Amino acid sequence: MCGIVGYIGEQEACGILLNGLRELEYRGYDSAGIALLEEGRITRFRAVGKLDNLVHRVGEYQTSGPVAAIGHTRWATHGKPTEANAHPHGLTHSQVVHNGIIENYQAIREQVPGDFLSQTDTEVIVHLFESLLAEQPDGEDAVLKAFRATLNALHGAYAILLVTETRPGEVFFARQGSPLQLAQAADGVHFASSDAPMVGVCDQAVYLEDGHWGVASAEGIRLFDEQDQPAEPITAPLLATSTAAQKEGFRYFMEKEIYEQDAVVSDILTGRLTETGVRLDELPDGWLEQFTSITLCACGTSYHAALTGAYLLERLAKVPARVEIASEFRYREPVLDPTGLFVVISQSGETADTFEALKLAAAQGLDTLALCNVDNSSIVRAASHTVLLRAGIEKGVASTKAFTAQVMALWLLAVHWGQVKGVLDADTGGREIEAMRRVREAVAIQPRVHDRLHRLSKRYLHGHGFFFIGRDLFYPLALEGALKLKEISYLHAEGYPAGEMKHGPIALADAELFTIALMPRSRLYDKIKSNVEELSARDSTIIAITTEYFELADDIIQIRAYDHPMLEFFEMMVVCQLLALEIAIRLGNDVDMPRNLAKSVTVE
After folding, report:
1. pLDDT digits (tens, 9 = 90+) for 427-448
2. Catalytic residue of the set 395, 401, 486, 599
3. What is the pLDDT of residues 219-267, one digit of tens each?
4. At the fourth CATH level, which superfamily is domain 3-244?
5. Residue 592 and residue 465 in contact, taking contact as beta carbons nearer than 8 Å
6. Looking at domain 251-444, does it have CATH number 3.40.50.10490?
7. Is 576 a catalytic residue?
8. Is 2 a known active-site residue?
9. Which of 2, 14, 297, 299 does the annotation list as catalytic?
């Protein structure tokens, strides 16, 4: 959550910070602010709401000459979205921006002097820093020592940038549990807490590890590890980033990303399909043969992909599969199979709960595999091996094409593992490969279907909720369809296994309950049909997504007929995504930046 950015150099800094924050706004848009340290004096601007409000507040102000500057776009954790709670937070001579959560902020508030002007946990950082600096004897490294002492007192997760009038031209930084990267250009150092820093300005980045901290200036970076030993900044290429993501005529990034899914499928399969099977060059030869089970751990949309993957892995690779919600997993004192593989799934590679679960599994001695969309992210660097998703930048907060890539990656893993174990016969393997080659066709948007969903959406703007129901592979898709709708429309929606409806939820059925029925011909059609009939008998309004006419449906969204359930899965997935999109647009919502949500969940 939240995005932070910094700049050191002699270029005009307001535009650089605002452009950087624009790239990070998907991480939080409750409020935003910047602080500019020039000529030994700090100027600060803050505004509530989206970044445009801050741009208006900054107005014509521009910097000239050397400047050290920091900025922040906020997703609220402590305190409401108000200007007082917006970052940067300051005291007499310093300003700080912070991503994460300071768990002991209440205790620090009671220990340090001064009046607190916000409800945030972040404000304690600057109070504590100035208090500790006042206790330091004069010396060249007094500020650096005070900053380190501040970090020692903080418990929780953080990425921090701090500027102080006592050290013009410098930005102090630290990372613990929240992402932070540095990048150096010819005229200074640039920072960001998103997937990549200062896109378009630098081509190399320093990816900080937990415990790294230090100070940056136009002369370079002084970097220290968690034992306070000097560390050598190691650069890595800065990958293609969101500056390349433009709407290109689409109304929203989410809509564009739905339409990009056929290209994503092509990219993720490139080099991984052979005439006879699946090749995953990222995994060492024979590596999978040692594992007797698999645990899949993820959050949100990635969790739904994991549930889908469990069906595929057990069916095709005959490997026992268990799926865990990362936010619950690490607090359950889980007992893991010491001969099992632990897999984490994350679009950003910075999801805090998933990252902690990965570390817990690694600490128990398990081999780990990451399915991730962002190379050099925290999860990628910590996992034993990684299969990159190749989905490209996803700016819409509600994930679409990354889900497609995750499911495809799990399908590839299942077929590959089945081949490695020798449990996937040639006919079945060939059928899976042929189906994979046709997924691009299944996710390609049909204009007639999108147009129908646009017209149909006006009928479903009321009522008391939606049930998405499915069986087998289509149960996780029902969960994902419901999540997409609730994320961007703010209408109540739930996904259920269709067979569970009569075990309680059917009590809600009436004409104002809209049931989205996923009815594939290739898998348990008669069973799901019977479940829909039960709902129809209770007067529920039925929207059937199926291949053919269904007499009890109030509305039918017809998909093409396929002979493989995964092809039906992917075409139904696109229908669910577009339906959620069109309903949300009719309700007047900002589809790309839904309320209360942010793209990268870097707090627990």
Report:
1. 999 999 999 999 999 999 999 9
2. 599
3. 889 999 999 999 988 787 765 544 445 777 899 999 999 999 999 999 8
4. Aminohydrolase, N-terminal nucleophile (Ntn) domain (3.60.20.10)
5. no
6. yes
7. no
8. yes
9. 2
